[in-house]
Structure to design on (364 residues):
């Protein structure tokens, strides 16, 4: 092996990321060593930076890894069908594959699940997150081969795009000709536009703030038929106009923190429509939730947590197809050592610098 240690950024306390050199372990028969090419950054990274995610620190964050297999045990190579030199996208959930939920195919709801990026440095080798040059792939890992010729910044979008497919298409069963309202124009909202468009949704509406102007324009370029600036337009009136008074088939909420969009969703979904909730609200209750509207409109309100293999596969197929100009969504690359700057940029703490999709790119 070329080097005996690898570089990582460790979260040692809320809002404190510190560099560290960590010894590379010997790789067991059922594991692999991943040389990280890119780690996507999303709202979860901001939350983790602020709070530590209620898991012991220090730990290495980074839950959206893309990399190349640098070393692999024979058992793992056989089981995963990959070898040294293969590029892979790594699912962040480590499920037991044995519990009741796992056995019915809902492995993302595994009772015994762990998540890469939230396992303490003190556990074994410590290389459980992708704010690093390397990480160790555990035997429970689910991974997907990816074409090495695609730029890492685009290939690593398997993550937001996977969410787009699961949340905007798979969970609500969006079909050709449907209408969907996507609340929030960040990377996941844009990914939802791309996913909905790919299955032939006829009406794709995206909401955002006035400050989201550039993102809303990007949403249009990806297939949004209408955009709504919720600070200057009345969402109910606009949806009435757009849908001839009927309301939308599906509403997907990906806004972080705000609960107002959920009230709006209940009002603008059509009778018999579906609402998918994927934006987390820090456990705040929805103030004006009127359950009778759910009853009389016979709404289906569905939660969406994480992404599963079918969503990732659709995302990777779309990336491989080259059919969508995904690079337009990518705004920033950062060195691993600059992880804090990446998070603060995404969190709008750097005036004048607006991030849509960004990632860490290790220097090898
Ligand atoms: Zn993420
Ligand atoms: Zn399980």
């Amino acid at each position: 092996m070329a080097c005996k240690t690898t570089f990582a950024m460790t979260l040692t306390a809320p809002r404190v990321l510190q560099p560290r050199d960590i010894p590379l372990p010997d790789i067991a028969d059922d594991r692999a060593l991943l040389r990280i090419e890119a780690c996507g950054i999303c709202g979860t990274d901001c939350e983790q930076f602020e709070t530590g995610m209620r898991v012991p620190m220090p730990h290495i964050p980074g839950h959206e890894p893309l990399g190349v297999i640098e070393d692999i045990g024979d058992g793992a190579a056989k089981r995963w069908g990959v070898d040294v030199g293969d590029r892979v996208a790594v699912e962040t959930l480590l499920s037991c594959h044995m519990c009741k939920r796992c056995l019915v195919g809902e492995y993302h709801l595994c009772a015994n699940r762990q998540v890469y990026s939230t396992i303490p440095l003190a556990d074994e080798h410590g290389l459980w997150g992708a704010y690093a040059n390397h990480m160790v792939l555990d035997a429970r890992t689910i991974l997907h081969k990816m074409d090495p010729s695609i730029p890492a910044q685009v290939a690593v979008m398997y993550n937001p795009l996977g969410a787009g497919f699961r949340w905007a298409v798979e969970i609500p069963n969006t079909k050709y000709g449907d209408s969907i309202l996507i609340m929030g124009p960040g990377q996941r909202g844009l990914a939802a536009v791309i996913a909905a468009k790919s299955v032939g949704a006829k009406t794709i509406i995206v909401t955002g703030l006035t400050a989201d102007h550039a993102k809303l324009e990007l949403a249009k370029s990806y297939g949004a038929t209408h955009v709504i600036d919720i600070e200057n337009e009345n969402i109910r009136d606009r949806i009435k106009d757009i849908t001839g008074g009927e309301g939308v088939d599906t509403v997907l909420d990906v806004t972080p923190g705000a609960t107002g969009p959920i009230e709006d969703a209940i009002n603008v979904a059509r009778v018999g429509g579906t609402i998918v909730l994927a934006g987390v609200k820090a456990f705040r209750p929805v103030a004006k939730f009127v359950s009778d509207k759910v009853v009389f409109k016979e709404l289906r309100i569905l939660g969406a947590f994480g992404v599963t293999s079918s969503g990732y596969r659709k995302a990777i197929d779309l990336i491989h197809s080259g059919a969508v100009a995904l690079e337009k969504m990518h705004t920033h690359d950062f060195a691993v050592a600059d992880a804090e700057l990446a998070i603060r940029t995404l969190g709008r703490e750097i005036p004048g610098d607006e991030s849509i999709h960004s990632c860490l790119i290790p220097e090898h």
Notes: Residues 42, 44, 63-64, 159 surround zinc ion (ligand 1) (CB under 6 Å). The first strand starts at residue 5 and ends at 13. The chain is about 30% helix and 25% strand.
